[in-house]
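Page 37, continued from 36.
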């Protein structure tokens, strides 16, 4: 074993695709998957590489026309012919490995090998690009991921090792992932859960509110309750004025978004560089976390096939929970191409999407990464656009957020209101925050990252149920930039009331968690975000939370005054008049800017005539308020509980063939 490893160390192991020219795509120097060049020091293999690869494909039944098409793909993307064939689904990686093992005299057979490592690897993703010791039934072998090494390297190994080559075992990437998970899954899922909490406990939602926040909340609540008992009117006036600070910040943010839409920045659109060619594109990891979503799998497979990106440069991870056997079985039966891996996450609480993503990140081999939900329909060139944007940006650009929209807008009243809300956020507010370099709360899908930066920051917080919004804040506080991407992903809008309330409860609970985490040390947050970023953070998070809770109270006060016949009468005291003026300002200003922003954000979209429905936004807010009070209850009793959003229920989802 030692002799084989020493010989393997002499080989310049590499990845099959040749990277872009020097100086391009500079990943962060903190654990990102780097690129390797294929330069074997051995040149004694007598069969030319191209002829050898063609012979392998033809021996496995590929026609001449198919081989020519694959050669064109491989040439344009600068990848190996066999890698192109596997990634495109023309051949199965296991069949190719078996044939290569036969032709190169490597170890053969399907013994249940286990990874022979003294401890769980610190950088698990590197196991997919390096020799790995395996053991089975007393026999030790060295495993190579056959999908990640060039034919030149494999041919050189076969010649250099001589008879010892029979102890070299070619495995698929999926087999290697499964072996590592079986042997070290518990340790890896432990890292996925506790990584951020150990590295940056001040950024983890696990500990909840810190002591001063608890004392402050208790004292403030006690003072308000006591003041209400002795001076109710004056207390209401002072409370309204205090809360108005947050309302006015929220109004100002939306008014600024209206102005930004009316006077857009033209610099970027006029100087947008051409999209990168296949040869210059980096390797891209695509995460698709699933839980109890058997019906949506065929739609997912179709959406993945539609991506305009070289298949051999895609590293697609279907992330599954080990307790979800139905989805695991269904996914295993689908005929995914060789660039798709199934990552089964060992069961451990909290059972959340960010925990699953943290686990899968340990197997990601891409330089860039994106998250898609099961029902997502990204525009085909979205990955290429994001890669181009990162390519031309400075290293501090860590993430770009694509627009989110809905494909089932016309399903019912709720889906129409949801679409208006998303247009307001992804076409109005987020582009404004991006334009002025302010903290940008990420959406739950279609955010594209530099993988190295993700690993540097501890990735996602498994205890925060809106891990996306929290990560956007952490990126900003760490000095990185987040920008919006001119590309759209179409999702399925929650169109059933109960499912919608559950989803919005989780969102609001997560925003409360995020606000609490980043206000543990307010002066530190202020220093790291700057005054404008600090105010924008409060305008978005505190504005949404407080307005959602206060909205029904305002209606109750109006209803009470109407029943008493005092709705339009002048106040009996100055405090009454002040209270009325503050309430009317918040009411009129809040509704006016939200209605205007909703209508303006819909301009130029495919949602013709939807602007007429913005008048129902105040009614829609009552639904939001219902979820807000559920969120407060859950925050106290089940802070880390993830209410699953059911996908695949829309009538607009046409049946997709597996």
């Amino acid at each position: 074993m030692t002799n084989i490893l020493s010989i393997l160390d002499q080989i310049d192991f590499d990845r099959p695709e040749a990277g872009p020219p020097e100086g391009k795509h500079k990943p962060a120097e903190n654990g990102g998957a780097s690129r390797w060049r294929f330069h074997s020091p051995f040149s004694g293999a007598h069969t030319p590489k191209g002829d050898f690869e063609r012979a392998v494909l033809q021996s496995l039944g590929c026609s001449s026309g198919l081989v020519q098409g694959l050669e064109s793909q491989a040439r344009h993307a600068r990848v190996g012919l066999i890698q192109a064939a596997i990634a495109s689904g023309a051949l199965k990686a296991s069949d190719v490995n078996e044939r290569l093992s036969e032709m190169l005299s490597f170890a053969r057979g399907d013994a249940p090998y286990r990874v022979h490592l003294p401890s769980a690897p610190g950088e698990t993703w590197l196991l997919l690009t390096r020799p790995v010791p395996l053991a089975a039934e007393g026999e030790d072998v060295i495993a190579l991921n056959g999908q990640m090494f060039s034919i030149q390297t494999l041919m050189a190994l076969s010649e250099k090792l001589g008879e010892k080559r029979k102890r070299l075992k070619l495995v698929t990437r999926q087999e290697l992932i499964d072996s590592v998970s079986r042997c070290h899954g518990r340790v890896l899922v432990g890292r996925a859960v506790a990584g951020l909490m150990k590295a940056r406990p001040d950024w983890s939602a696990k500990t909840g509110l810190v002591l001063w926040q608890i004392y402050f909340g208790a004292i403030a609540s006690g003072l308000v309750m006591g003041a209400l008992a002795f001076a109710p009117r004056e207390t209401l006036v002072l409370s309204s004025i205090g809360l108005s600070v947050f309302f006015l910040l929220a109004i100002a943010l939306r008014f600024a978004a209206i102005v930004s839409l009316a006077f857009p920045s033209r610099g970027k659109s006029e100087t947008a560089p051409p999209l990168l060619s296949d040869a210059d594109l980096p390797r891209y990891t695509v995460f698709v976390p699933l839980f109890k979503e058997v019906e949506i799998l065929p739609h997912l497979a179709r959406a993945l096939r539609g991506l305009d990106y070289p298949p051999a440069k895609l590293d697609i991870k279907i992330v599954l929970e080990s307790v979800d056997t139905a989805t695991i079985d269904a996914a295993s039966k689908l005929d995914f191409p060789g660039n798709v891996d199934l990552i089964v996450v060992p069961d451990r609480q909290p059972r959340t999407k960010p925990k699953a993503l943290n686990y899968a990140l340990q197997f990601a081999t891409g330089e860039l990464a994106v998250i898609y939900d099961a029902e997502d329909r990204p525009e085909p060139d979205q990955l290429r656009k994001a890669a181009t944007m990162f390519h031309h940006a400075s290293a501090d650009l860590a993430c770009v957020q694509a627009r989110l929209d809905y494909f089932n807008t016309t399903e019912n009243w709720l889906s129409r209101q949801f679409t208006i809300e998303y247009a307001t956020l992804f076409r109005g507010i987020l582009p404004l925050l991006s334009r002025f370099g302010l903290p940008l709360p990420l959406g739950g899908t279609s955010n594209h990252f530099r993988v190295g930066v993700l690993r540097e920051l501890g990735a996602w917080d498994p205890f925060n149920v809106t891990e996306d919004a929290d990560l956007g804040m952490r990126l900003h506080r760490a000095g990185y930039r987040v920008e919006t991407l001119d590309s759209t992903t179409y999702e399925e809008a929650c169109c059933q009331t109960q499912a919608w309330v559950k989803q919005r409860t989780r969102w609001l609970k997560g925003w409360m968690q995020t606000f609490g985490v980043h206000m543990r040390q307010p002066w530190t947050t202020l220093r790291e975000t700057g005054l404008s970023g600090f105010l924008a953070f409060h305008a978005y998070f505190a504005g949404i939370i407080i307005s959602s809770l206060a909205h029904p109270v305002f209606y109750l006060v109006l209803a009470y005054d109407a029943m008493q016949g005092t709705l339009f009468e002048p106040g009996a005291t100055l405090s009454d008049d002040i209270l009325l003026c503050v309430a009317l300002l918040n009411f009129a200003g809040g509704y006016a800017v939200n209605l205007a922003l909703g209508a303006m954000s819909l301009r130029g979209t495919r949602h013709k005539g939807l602007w007429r429905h913005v008048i129902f936004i105040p009614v829609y807010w009552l639904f939001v308020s219902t979820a807000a009070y559920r969120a407060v209850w859950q925050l106290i009793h089940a802070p880390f509980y993830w209410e699953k959003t059911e996908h695949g229920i829309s009538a607009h989802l046409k049946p997709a063939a597996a």
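The two ends are 44 Å apart (CA to CA). Flag for discussion at group meeting. Residues 11-46 have pLDDT under 50 and may be disordered.
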